[in-house]
Description:
By secondary structure, this protein is an all-alpha fold. It has helices at residues 11-24, 28-45, 51-54, 68-80. Pfam families: DUF6364.
Amino acid sequence: MNTKLTLSLEKTVIENAKSYAKKTGRSLSELVESYFKNLTEKSEIADDIHPKVKKLIGRITLPPDFDEEKVKEEHYREKYGF
């Protein structure tokens, strides 16, 4: 069941959000709902993450072919001389 929500935001934020929604083919409501879902799901998982790292969540976009395990391996090899 959908419920209405009234928000007060800066005009430029709303305009930019509407523009982004249009470019991505989504409604503003979808974006807000998705953000809230993502925010609440991550907060349950991320309770033990350092606050400085939490600030980075959602700000960094990795390429689709990014290999986390390979990067970790290279890091440990450089750090510990493996």
